[in-house]
Design a protein that fits this description.
The chain has 2 domains: 130 residues, 3-Layer(aba) Sandwich (Rossmann fold); 78 residues, Regulator of K+ conductance, C-terminal domain (Alpha-Beta Plaits, 2-Layer Sandwich). Helices cover 36% and strands 27% of the residues. The protein contains 9 helices and 11 strands. Strands 3-2-1-4-5-6 form a 6-stranded parallel beta sheet, with helices on both faces. The mean pLDDT is 90.
Length: 214
């Protein structure tokens, strides 16, 4: 479970919050609009109505205590930029921001954002899984039941081979590739020995994937 701050409850922010909570994370949402905050109470109860461009608001949140801060402001780039700068100034560990234009993305990255996305619902849900999960590094939903994702090697697998762990029969997942740094090795042999410096690109049922990556 991660502690996550989401600023802005427009469409992107709401989708992020819903998926982050579904993944079992602790989420605090900040929204300037009382109407938007009220409309989000069906998905999250921990909502504060506040203007996050106010330095005192950011200071009071203790942003350095959150694993991730999401700037989900949709309709005011100046506000998104100011909030990003304040989060960085007050020690945010990792800042994920949303942009609608390439020039906005560049400015956000130059002023404190660690990662910037162009996003709506599908991307919001994918990002929520990626950043809200301890051992999932990327995620693509194929169907409501199936997904492909990049995951850390479970500690119990290290030093064992694919055939020793009976991955397909025991977990009902397929290992599509292994990855070390930027090198990808497709379709590893059943004799492949798992190591702690690699990640796995796997395909399988979403519930199974989540069960062994948490």
């Amino acid at each position: 479970m991660k502690s996550i701050l989401v600023i802005g409850l427009g469409r992107f922010g709401r989708h992020m919050v819903a998926k982050l909570l579904e993944e079992g994370n602790s989420v605090l949402a900040i929204e300037k609009s009382e109407e938007r905050a009220d409309n989000a109470l069906d998905i999250i109860s921990d909502v504060q109505i506040a203007d996050a461009t106010n330095e005192m608001v950011i200071r009071s949140l203790g942003v350095s205590n959150f694993d991730l801060c999401v700037v989900a402001i949709e309709d005011n780039f100046q506000s998104a930029l100011e909030i990003t700068v304040l989060l960085k100034d007050f020690g945010a560990k990792y800042i994920l921001a949303r942009a609608s234009r390439d020039v906005h993305r560049k400015l956000l990255l130059r002023n404190g954002a660690d990662h910037v996305v162009y996003a709506e619902r599908e991307t919001a849900e994918r990002l929520a899984i990626k950043y809200g999960s301890k051992n999932i590094f990327d995620y693509i939903e194929l169907t409501p039941e199936m997904a492909i994702c990049e995951v850390a090697v479970p500690s119990a697998w290290i030093g064992k081979s694919i055939v020793e762990k009976s991955v397909r029969t025991s977990y009902n997942i397929s290992i599509l590739a292994t990855k070390k740094g930027e090198q990808v090795f497709p379709l590893p042999h059943p004799s492949h020995i798992f190591t702690n410096d690699e990640t796995l690109i796997i395909m399988g049922d979403k519930s199974v994937i989540h069960s062994f990556t948490y």
